[in-house]
Design goal:
The protein is mainly alpha-helical and 86 residues long. The protein is built from 4 helices and 2 strands.
């Protein structure tokens, strides 16, 4: 019988918590100044719907950790990794 860890017990969750402690005080102006392509890289458009993640306190590391958390979830098909974001 396989034991499944709860979401908050996973190593990837703990890494995401630590990452949050590092980025939660970052100012968006700083993020945009450090990365002039942020608006384009952290947005997607499909089927006439435009999603802009650039105006959130996220980094490439944030997305990498979120994808890692998703890929390790029970029943995950390993989808979600988009090279544009990594």
């Amino acid at each position: 019988m396989t034991t499944t860890l709860s979401l908050t017990q996973r190593t990837t969750w703990k890494a995401l918590e630590e990452h949050y402690r590092q980025v939660h005080t970052l100012h968006l102006r700083t993020l945009f100044n450090q990365d002039t392509g942020r608006g384009e890289r952290f947005s997607q458009e499909a089927l006439g719907i435009y999603l802009d993640y650039s105006k959130n306190r996220i980094t490439e590391e944030t997305l990498r950790l979120l994808f890692a958390l998703e890929c390790g979830a029970p029943g995950s098909r390993g989808v979600g990794q988009d090279d544009r974001f990594l």
